[in-house]
Structure prediction request, 245 residues.
Amino acid sequence: MNSDALLGRVRKLLAMAEAEGLTEEARQSYNAKAAELIAQYGIDRALLEESGPVRARAADVVLDIHPPYARDKVTLLASIVAPLGCRLVHRTARGADGRTGHAAHLFGMDSDLTRVQLLFTSLLVQQAQALALATPPRWEDPRAFRRSWMAGFAVAVQQRLAEAERAAAERAQATHADGPSVALVLADRSSRVDAHLASVYPRLRAARGRHLSGSGGRAGYAAGQRADLGTRSGVTRSNARQALG
Prediction:
């Protein structure tokens, strides 16, 4: 099966996972398979691109991140970017109205940037839907609860994606035992991404860590464990835009 066909299978699996009356065990099984296939797509594209006579070049794209909770949306995006072999630079700028605008400058190979954007659109919608069902304690600031909830969601997503990517690389190496080292191919691509990032931001500084006081982290983590790690068939352009802004 070619790598593009894998994304079609991901969409079908997630459509099955969204069916009414499905048991939680069956839903999780479909979602786990979808995560496995989107990771396989990334490995297949990497091996295909690196087998050609000309090495693929790293690319970049800028995404505007809109309120509310723009900084927390950047955190979710960062949790997707890292496992998928990309990099993120969080940019802020004060607008004419005095408000701080947020943007994410992403660096990576084209196929990986495609995966990141597909997952981000899907997970933004899922996060918004699940957060709407979470009830903050009466004694707690709702915004503090929601920020900690979103942080927990992002942690779960990053852990699941990292495991799916690791397993996909191991399967690919076993399948192509006589071919090039999958780890070396990925490391070489990663070095090109880093070089491109350094050429654009030669004096980049690490961001300061955030301290979140809310109590929603555990509930958000649990929701992130249940999230579909692929493009949901129910995600439309309209509700994606709503989640983004």
